[in-house]
Amino acid sequence: MAASELYTKCARVWIPDAEDVWKSAELIKDYKNGDASLQLTLEDGTNIEHKLDPKTKNLPHLRNPDILVGENDLTALSYLHEPAVLHNLKVRFIDSKLIYTYCGIVLVAINPYETLPIYGTDIINAYSGQNMGDMDPHIFAVAEEAYKQMARDERNQSIIVSGESGAGKTVSAKYAMRYFATVSGSASEANVEEKVLASNPIMEAIGNAKTTRNDNSSRFGKYIEIGFDNRYRIIGANMRTYLLEKSRVVFQADEERNYHIFYQLCASAKLPEFKNLRLSTANDFLYTRQGRSPVIDGVDDSKELCTTRHAFTLLGINESYQMGLFQVLAAILHLGNVEIKEKDSDSSLIAPNNRHLTAFCELVGVTYKDMSQWLCHRKLKTATETYIKPLSRLQATNARDALSKHIYAKLFSWIVEHVNKALVTSIKQHSFIGVLDIYGFETFEINSFEQFCINYANEKLQQQFNMHVFKLEQEEYMKEQIPWTLIDFYDNQPCINLIEAKMGILDLLDEECKMPKGSDDSWAQKLYNTHLKTCCLFEKPRMSNRAFIIQHFADKVEYQCDGFLEKNKDTVNEEQINVLKASKKFHLLMELFQDEEKATSPTGQAPGTGGRTRLSIKPDKSRETSSKEHKKTVGCQFRNSLQMLMETLNATTPHYVRCIKPNDFKLAFSFDPKRAVQQLRACGVLETIRISAAGFPSRWTYQEFFSRYRVLMKQKDVLPDKKLTCKHVLERLVEDQDKYQFGKTKIFFRAGQVAYLEKLRADKLRAACIRIQKTIRCWLARKKYLRKRSAAITIQRFTRGYQARCLAKFMRLTQAATVIQKYQRMYVEKKRYRKKQAAALAMQTILRAYMARQKYQALLREHKAVIIQKRIRGWLARCWYKRCLEAIVYLQCCIRRMRAKRELKKLKIEARSVEHFKKLNKGMENKIMQLQRKIDEQNKDNRLISEKLVGLESSYAVEGERMRSELSQLRGVEEDARNKAIQVSSLLEELEKLRKELSVTQQEKKTLEEWAQTYRSEMEKMVSELKDQNGSLKKEKDDLNRLIQEQSQQMTEKMTRAIAEETHQLETDLNEERSRYQNLLSEHLRLEEKYDDLKEEMARSSNIKPGHRRTDSTHSSNESEYTYNSEYTEMEEGSRAGDDVTRGMDTSLTLKLQKRVTELEQEKQSLRDELENKEDQFQRARARDDAEFRKARGAELEYESLKRQELESENKKLRHDLAEMRRSLLGNTAAGAGAPGSPAYKVLLDQLNASCEELEVRKEEVLILRSQLVSQKEAMHHKETMTEPSVFAEDVNKLKDADELKQAYVGLKDTNRSPRFTRPPLEVGDLLSRLRSAAPDLHRLNEDGELWLVNQGLKETVRLLEHQLQTQRRTYENETESLRGELQNVKEENNRQQQLLAQNLQLPPEARIEASLQHEITRLTNENLEFMANDPAASQEARVIILRRMVDLMEQLEKQDRTIRKLKKQLKVYSKRIGEMGAGQTEGQTSPGQMVEEPIHPVNIPRREKDFQGMLEYKREDEMKLVKNLILELKPRGVAVNLIPGLPAYILFMCLRHADYLNDDQKVRTLLTSTINSIKKILKKRGDDFETVSFWLANTCRFLHCLKQYSGDEAFMKHNTQRQNEHCLSNFDLAEYRQVISDLAIQIYQQLIKCMENILQPMIVSGMLEHETIQGVSGVKPTGLRKRTSSIADEGTYTLDSILRQLNAFHSIMCQHGTDPELIKQVVKQLFYIIGAVTLNNLLLRKDMCSWSKGMQIRYNVSQLEEWLRDKGLMTCGAKETLEPLIQAAQLLQVKKKTDEDAEAICSMCQALTTAQIVKVLNLYTPVNEFEERVSVAFIRTIQTRLRDRCESPQLLMDTKMIYPVTFPFSPSCVALETIQIPGSLNLAFLTRV
Hints:
Layout: E1 12-17, E2 21-27, E3 37-42, E4 47-51, E5 61-62, H1 82-95, E6 100-103, E7 106-110, H2 121-127, H3 139-153, E8 157-163, H4 169-184, H5 192-207, E9 208-209, E10 217-218, E11 221-228, E12 234-242, H6 260-267, H7 286-289, H8 301-314, H9 319-336, E13 340-342, E14 348-350, H10 355-364, H11 368-375, E15 377-381, E16 386-390, H12 393-423, E17 431-437, H13 449-480, H14 493-500, H15 505-514, H16 520-531, E18 538-539, E19 547-551, E20 556-560, H17 564-569, H18 574-581, H19 587-592, H20 634-650, E21 653-660, H21 673-683, H22 685-694, E22 698-701, H23 702-708, H24 722-733, E23 740-742, E24 746-749, H25 753-912, H26 914-1104, H27 1129-1138, H28 1147-1231, H29 1238-1277, H30 1285-1294, H31 1298-1311, H32 1324-1331, H33 1336-1341, H34 1347-1401, H35 1405-1430, H36 1432-1479, E25 1512-1513, H37 1519-1528, H38 1532-1538, H39 1543-1557, H40 1561-1581, H41 1586-1605, H42 1618-1622, H43 1631-1666, H44 1696-1712, H45 1717-1740, H46 1748-1768, H47 1775-1778, H48 1780-1790, H49 1796-1805, H50 1811-1820, H51 1833-1842, E26 1888-1889
Parallel strand pairs: 7-21, 8-17, 8-21
Antiparallel strand pairs: 1-2, 1-5, 2-3, 3-4, 6-7, 9-10, 11-12, 11-17, 13-14, 15-16, 18-19, 19-20, 22-24, 23-24, 25-26
Helix pairs in contact: 3-4, 4-5, 5-6, 5-8, 5-12, 6-8, 9-10, 9-12, 13-14, 13-20, 13-22, 15-16, 23-24, 25-26, 26-29, 26-34, 26-35, 26-36, 26-43, 28-29, 28-30, 28-32, 28-36, 29-36, 35-36, 37-40, 39-40, 39-41, 40-43, 41-43, 43-44, 43-45, 45-48, 46-48, 49-51, 50-51
């Protein structure tokens, strides 16, 4: 392709610029071959002429299309050159706030100098498992790629982080290590990943310092190898360090600091443990004040020291060693303050008693004399003699500083060595990932030995980098099978040879160091003589003889020779070292100067080398330490360590991170092009670009190329084979075959070809747009013309019509004027006539109305006078009647009161009688049984009597009917006659009265007329005044009413809002509480699983090493709190016998446990404080409750007295009725012996008399028992808290009716009845919640009655964890003693029962029953007396038992009362019928005595089949078989398809019912415990199987609902049938186990969500984002070297249909398993939240997905999900609301983003998105085509300004691990237990139906 084809008009190019390095310009006219210049226009509108180089004729670089600007990978750019790279980085950094960019295999990281929220755990989780090109560039993506390649390729990896000081190398390396620690975890409980991260603050404290370029600059290089086991979990780490900058210890430039650790110590000098260090502020020490910048803004050195000390502790360096380190560091500071005075020109001295030297000597444990001597003198040795030479002041000062540097270097090496020892592991290392944090290329005004070594290292690294890039390019070409052409790239081996080869710079430097009188000048001359003429890379400065220049790969660097020899030798006075070695008091100091093999560890571990390079100079072990001839120089050591590093890197797969410093002023998001280009050239990024550009940098898959450039193809060019289609199109479009190559899966393009294709595509689209515009404009113009023509014709038509209408109108007006005049005149005359007529009519009307009103008022006054007289007379009569009635009632009350007092006195005397009480107790049971038998006999007699009475009724019915008809006729005639007589008399009286009134009225009329005339005038005046007042009052009233209505409306609205807010707050608090509780459950489950794994691992280790075991004494306290210590005894013994643990515990684990214990203690203290507050509130509430309870007790006593009075009156009435009946019957029999029914009547009377007598006796006994019951309850109220006084009092006050009071009383007695499993006493929180839970909102929130259970469960969980270990042994001992006593009592009782049984067998049946009852009463009495004598507490329990049994007896008596009342009603009916029959007797009827008795034929009575009670019986030894067959070995698929849903839950509950029926608490415990443990076991074993987890979630919920439905609680029995209510549990209250099973259901639910998430996770991103659901909408942009997932669906790619199919599978399986619909809704809501969160998180981390077309795809996908919800009827479950953030993000991609109105619309629309998410989407928005526009920076700032006041979390990503708190609303079952059949496939034949 010719250049003229690209350098055309409007083409954009880059031209050099002195200030901005490169500047963009646009061609004004086309370029032609041979032109010497280009006509350009700059972006500011300036026209310039750019002259071309006459020699090279090189044209300026072309600029990439706008759609390629801002790409994630620089290699995706069509034109690869320096200005394109610089511009792309600037756009991403400044406009999009993106600091990471790929450049092939290199990650370019620009330091933002600002804390960004992109390194949280949520970001780590988002990048985990993702391909490197799928997400936006990030350091986590590089770390994930290294981790993935290590696991996939079984090859070690390295991450090389380089850059200038201040570029962010240390932070990048730190984040990479944090990623490995978070993703991989550790292989043991030693928390190695925490130790690895803990090494960072230590190394930063001792190796980092503030420089002019960076506040936290690393002054050493380090390479950390993070080791992994075969499961790729961190097991340890190893650190190597390089070239510590020791000179910083004694000297710092302006605005710089020494190492951080010194300032941390000075800031913490006031701590008590640091008093002996004699430290003060940093400005008081020479070594910390030279830079005059002791403080870093935003850094608290004292807090940093705490972090450092914590890291030391975590790494196993104990407090003593830490204090030793701090002593050495303080000694260095004091040594720097030692003042050396000049004695003469050649000698110096230190003043005696120098306080800093004294402090130094005391801290290091040496003598003051020796140290002051050798600081100012030096020992010289010759062959024969030894001399002591004094040192001048300068030499002594240099020797002091050398000693300080040497001590610090030794200390640094010691810390690194022991950090490595703490990170070492005994587990075999399978692989490792190395992180190299090393200095980048440096060049300053004055460059010395340190810069020389740094640049030497960078030369080696650059060579390795170039070779690796070259290798990757070669592998890619070979993989795609395209012709390979050798790429020429810069090789820096000559520069490396210049430095390290034989006779190189380092060799000459070492040789000069060995010379006795070697100097920097002589070494410089050797360099000039050796290399100046032989090496083109070595130069000599013109103006200096003490410097040299080396041409490095990045730039030329001039090095000053001053100090090279001294720094290379790194000499120190040997006698000073000997003095320090002689220290006997300071053990750590001795370790610092010992050989490496003899060094000891603070943790007791042996030191390991592992090929580590030490910073200090290590002498040869075979020689004396004083032999300087064989001492390695610093340069030699550095060369050797660098060689080892390169060997390590070459043996690994490297990954490169290049850190760029954007400016020198540490300004946030400020970009300096000059500094950036300088670093890009130095770090090898541009070299990577050059290598890539030399080959085929642009690479497209065939599918991507076809999708992108389909617009350039004609229909005939499209073939079924896309590869062949692409070949044909490229051959047609690009004539030069060398510009592209076809690989196996990709097409490779030369640089610029993609831009050319993009130009062709844009031209084709532009031509299409022009054609579309032309056609549309033509259509619009023609449409406009036709519209105008039609309008002209219409105007003409309407104009002509208007003129014709005007003429017709004029003619009509003329005619109308004449008519109007005629009618006007007629109207005037008619109006005058009607006015006169109306006046006459009005006068007549007023006169007639006045007369009528006068007449009406007269009649009205007469009528009202009559009414007043009538009412007064009636009132006087009623008053007299009431006075009489009150006197009679008062007299009756006095008489009854007197009789009641006598009766009460008599009853009290009887009640006080002990003998009477004993007699009643003794005969009470016998009398009850006798009464029952008599009632049965009476029932039989009543049935016989009723049969006879039926016969009598039929005989007397006809006669009675005839007599009644005659009587009614006679009565009617008599009544008519009486009425007529009364009517006649009344009419006569009324007539006379009217006559008298008429005369009186006539007289009064005259007077009233006169008075009325005067009164009328006065009233009219008064009425007018009153009307005025009334009007004003009405107006005021209306105003007041309006104000009242407004105020009431405001108050109502205010109260409604307050209630709504309070309700919402309560709901939020409840959800948070549920969430915390369920998180605790999940954490508990995780710890439980870890505990089981550790137990198994210890068991395996114990099998390997049986000799080193010990029994875990704390195992019993570590049992799950949900088993409530109810495991089988055999299982506990087996587990205790088999549990072994290792003897040693890792120090870090101990510290972690101690930290956890501290947190628990703090939480415990806070809970205690809260409990105390609650108790205070409870005490205040208790006082109120006591008053209410006393009122309730008074009400109850009053009720009892009323009941007694009612019974007495009822008995009297019955006795009176029976006496009358008796008299009537005896009268009938006396009249004639043959009266009908006389024999039956006598029998009936006898029975009734007996019943009445027995009834009176029983009533007296009931009254006595009730009085005793009330007294005992009042006594128990002050001693026990088993009842609920406040609730009882509140309920009694609410009950008004006597029947309601009685039912409430009986219900209260029922609640106190339970044998062994009783409801626990109410806690403070529970009582307060019950007292204050009357609001309807709380009832609505209290779903399924579980609100208080949740709160109570949380509190009891904490208490159980705190007290379980302390109370278990004591409880066990107490229970053992009590069980032994109970066993002895049971044995004695058994013997007595056997004797009693033998005696009872010899008695007849009636006597046997009576004897057994008598024995039972005697036994209870004895036990009561015995308990009261021995133990008051036991007597109290005995009273409770007696009370409950008395309540049972009272229930029986109440049943008998109901039976008696029923009999009474029947007797009343019979007596009435008998009376009617007796009145209508006739002589011709047959008496009962004359009736012929018919023989009774025998009747065949069939036996009823025994009803199934819905229980299953099993033997205790079959329990394990039941659990095994029903839980462990059950296949969910077969059960879900063939059987009823929840069958295992029903079977387990039916077995539990039978255990409850037997009152076997041990069986209940073991069954529930084994069920819970078995479900946990099967879920642990098959927890990844969705069907298994769903099946057991459904069955666990059904089992929980069964426990509630059949618990007997009224709240759960509302929907039960009568049969289901009969199946309720009768003996045990399983509320605690319901809570345990509810917790188990929560755990299963969380496991189900996790399982579903694991299945859906791979589908979400591909189906929701990457797959192109609407074909042809999305455009594919060019990709770089990093592979990006294509949006075109290939085989095996997940689509939206895959997600919908999986959701259908989930829904159908849960429905088959019978999962509750409400629970399914919660599951679906959680799944949709996961889909929305994962999709949105990936959208926020993928720049290629933020486009208009992708927003349309997302909205379509969301609509499909909503359609699925609609089809399943789940629109109300809240799942749609969870997708709201994703919907708003998609809308944000599609809305207009230009004006302020658009910003306002975005702010109001995106309520579910945070500010960070909105800004992130806007920054990432990328046009796919040239016709789209980018979002301007000003618009984004406008959005940020508008959203500034939002109160929200700064977190960028949504929490995909968040699980909504689950609730289990009560869902009663309609399945009858007695109808359930057990299939044979379950192998449960040992169960027996009961």
